[in-house]
Amino acid sequence: MNPRTRLWLVVLGGGGLAALLVAACLRLPVFGGPWHPYGDRAVRAALARHTANTVASVNFDQRAFDTMGEMTILFGAVLGCVVLLRQARDEHRDPPAPCEVAAPVRRYALIVLPVALVTGLYVIAHGQLSPGGGFQGGVVAATALHLMYLGADYAALERIRPIEAYEIGDALSASAYLVLGFAGVLAGSAFLANTLLPYGTFNMLSSGGTVPLLNAAIGMEVACAVVVLLARFLDQAVEIEEGSGE
Amino acid sequence: MTAVMHVLPYLVAAYVFLVGAYGLATSRNLIHAVGCLAVCQSATYVLLLAVGYRDGGTAPVFSDIRPGSRPVVDPVVQALTLTDIVVGATVTALLLALTVQIAKRHGTVDPDELRELRG
Amino acid sequence: MTDAVVVVALLAVAGCATAAVANRDPARQALILAVLGTSLAVLFTVLQAPDVGLSQLAVGSALTPLLIMLSVRKVRRRSAHGKDSRQ
Amino acid sequence: MNGWILAATVVLAVGLGTTLWGVATGPLGRRVVAQNLSTALVCPGLLLLSQGYSRTAYVDLALLLALLGPVGTLVFVRLLADELGDNPPQAWGPTWVAAGVGTVVVAVLCAVTGPGRAMVKLLVIGALLVGGNLLASRALSGGFPGVSRD
Amino acid sequence: MHRLLPLLPAVPLLGAGLLVAGGRHVPRPVAEAFACVAAATTAALAIVLLPHSSPPLVEWVGGWFPKGGESVGIVLLGDGVSLGLVALVSLITLAALAYSWHYFDEPPRGHAGTFPALILLFQGGMCGFAIAGDLFNLFVFFELMSVVAYALTGYRIDEARAVQGGVTFGVVNSLGAYFMLMGIALLYARTGELAMAKIGHGLDAAAAHHGPDALALAGFVMVLTGLLVKAAAVPFQFWLPDAHAVAPTPVCMLLSGVMVELGAYGVWRVYGTVFSGPGGVPAADASRALVVLGVLTGAVGSVMCWYQRHIKRLLAFSTIAHTGLFLVGIGVLKAEADDGTALYILGHAGVKAALFACAGILLDRYGSVDELYLHGRARRLRGVGVMFAVGALALAGLPPFGTGLGKAVSEEAVGGPLTVLYVAASALTGAAVLRVAARVFLGLGPRPEEGDGEESDEDETSGADEEPETQKRLNHVPLPMVAVPAVLLAAALVVGAVPGFADMVGHAVEAAGTWGVFSSVHWTATGVLLDLLSTLLAVGLAMVAVTRPGLLGAPGWALPLRRLQSGHVGDYVAWLLVGTALLGALALPGVLG
């Protein structure tokens, strides 16, 4: 199909869709309205279980099954990237030459790296209290490691990043989340039931029953998964060359 | 102003979605197309959070306020959006991985130049 | 008054989305997507969703641009390969 | 109505408006500068919003942005080194303005908050923000001889 | 028993996690055996739960049972249909794993568990999708099965076509998923709920005074777009042949055998639970939309199927044709049609998976799946040839295969001109497969010259020069690769031939639906005659095509249709937008009135 025909199709279909969406928007409850039945119930349920961050309670307790799916999507996608970005038969590895990075950038990276790691861990650990949680903190921690690439070079990053360990950590923490779910069934309660541990004191790190545990599992899973993911892309961009040697 | 404000966020979400879809359909570069898909997805974040907003509400996070002292917005849509963001990031990564392989095998990332899988 | 800041954030998101679609070069698009991520984080903050804002910042400001730029680099290096040995 | 939110609105409107224009048009170098400035201007905006909503929990957002924003810019600097190398962008004016805005906002907020853990956090954010942006700007303008071109 | 429902997706997912964690330290057979055990456990669990599914099992994950009719948790539904589908998914997964046993090429460098782990994740996603009773949870598992399927489709990264098919599949399906999410957000705004049954009630309550409005219509259109993309309805179908033709054979068995049908199941579930009330979309309009799309799908799928020479692509188009029939069966909104469709899906899954398995054997033995190239070359593979021909006849509806029974029951329920579509589509797709069987395995008809079809090369995908999926080209066909299609065909036969099985399926479907009637499902004289008619038509068409290739060659009018399948992502997205608008237009009258 030539671009002009395609554009006509887009205009036709997009026009119809736009009309439909606008008509629907005009019928939606007004922005900022007071009526949120599910949300109000969720807040009450979270407070009843001593979880200060309602969003964490929804994610890791009330709708923990969604989070299981979400975590598995990430796990599956990373596994998929490992498969898709593997070294093909007609490629070889060509370690990049070590390169020199300006001293201020190196200093900045070395200072910020630990700060970012600590921030990541802080965001994970406080997930059930203040904004944040396993996912956000995990991404920050994983990104922090890659300051090694920005501040030094790829070889330095590879030294602090034994990729196999991260792959296994990814799989184990994903499994840990599922095992916590199974524990509910084995204990005679429901799958992913938050009834195994005491709910603790409101607004304390150990409050919320299994929420901190699931949160920690997600944090570790995400951190490992992002490291593995970026490693595959970096491998492709920096190391893997086509042809069997030149 | 208020009448517009009542629907503006929804309309912005619809607009962003349509713009992303337009970009996807007319893209000449698969990496750009993946970016457009991310734009489409950001429309879903906007719509979900707009649906859950409450005038004068604050975040349903009680680490620094007393429960019940202020009205709060809907936490459920926030949880849904969080899931959505993770999904978006993973889909982006996976599609980029496939695009990298297309570049290797076809020597181009322009969909107009991919001459396979016809008929 | 709180509405004004919502409008600003919404318009910024809409503008970034348009620009991200209109700029056809992936490297330039990646830059705009980074700004789109930041705008979305602002929007999420004013919609009182700091959790979502945090994850959008984490993903949008460093992770997604890094992934896109690495792909761009790989694709470019591939097409430059063989013509001249620009590494 | 709340002065903090008004200030945040102004900062965000100006900041996002100019950086959007900067990042969507013009040569590649200017776009990277604009991306860097977007971090530098949005971060004070987020701090002001946190004060305006009187939620200290929102400060984490600014912290994350101050940490990761410059990292994002450094990614672009590193991976676009070839394109930027020929004609390194110089934008010290806007950079210093942004840094100034950041400093002023952090200083005012520190004064309001008073000594304590919250103030330490604000100072850390301020240091990361201003330091990161100045460094990213300098890396962009090619101020470091021998920046890698691998 | 309801406590065990969440384990259906969780068991394969845990299996995958453990396989990745430990897979690199165990030999390959151990990893594959472990994957088989995980898949089989899920199948066994589903089969154990099945007898308890009437009344449907309901589980609130995390023990969030409703208080005062309201809950904050996620609901899972274990009725006859969802549990039956879980069992089907798990059994086909087991077949795919057995098929790939030890012969399928693995990526190098010690990732022994990766491929089986991805298959298990795929299975977990499909199981979760089947039992979801919560709309957002449905979306999450929809995405899970999509994401894993993209990776599996592009698995053979050395092949240009595989990665292209993977990207097309990924972009179109992700966009469809975002449509669905937009729809979910709209429905949540209106009703404030996420459980499907509660959304349905909320829509009814909101529309008590003025009937359904644009918002309900938009929710319907957006959610259904996502599901119809998965179900490959016209004009959302373009991604399917591109993806199915290039995916590894065991993955094709899963994609064509169950994943696409899950899209149709999603339509049935979502329409029945969410939109069938007075606040949803009126029955006449929903029926019009689904039947029109179904008829288009059946027609386009079977015509395109006939003109393929790439065998896997041909099978993919036949899947499209059959999904069209399933959509029609769901769309007429009759209890008997639902029964027939359920049986048809069961039979079709077995037959289609077996046919893909046979095509995979050709690929691994001869390095090609091109009908013209392979002409007469596979004479020695007698067993495979027989299975391929039997599969073709079963696809055309030969009694007493499950496909035949499902087709007969659906035909009787839909009645009128739609019967013609069922006969024509099944005859045409059966004939296409039979033609391949006659040419490839028997060498019948004139041998096509090299370069035949050269003039239309631009618009055609040939199946030559494909890489075999095994480590090296096979000299003899290993036992599992032959046993799997044989067992699958036998299972398809059992579905139709064992007395009482069909009745059981019918009861399960009607207990799960909203019809409240129990009709008996059995062979009738008309049904058998129509089945025989379509089988004879298929044989006749295939004979003519083989002996007189010129007579039924591609005519000019089919060329534009084939050009639409352009392999261009942008085109497919444009068609997706058009399809959404079309869906809205078809369902519009009910909202205006």
UniProtKB/TrEMBL annotation, chain A:
UniProt-listed Pfam families: MnhB
Principal place of residence: membrane
Claim: Membrane is one of the keywords in the record: yes
Membrane-spanning segments: 71-88, 108-129, 135-156, 168-193, 213-234
Domain Na+/H+ antiporter MnhB subunit-related protein, first and last residues per copy: 106-227
Membrane topology listed for this record: Multi-pass membrane protein
Signal peptide feature range: none
Keywords: Cell membrane, Membrane, Transmembrane, Transmembrane helix
Compartment(s) where it occurs, according to its Swiss-Prot or TrEMBL record: Cell membrane
Protein family according to the UniProt entry: Belongs to the CPA3 antiporters (TC 2.A.63) subunit B family.
Name of the molecule in the record: MnhB domain-containing protein
Organism for this UniProt entry: Streptomyces carpinensis
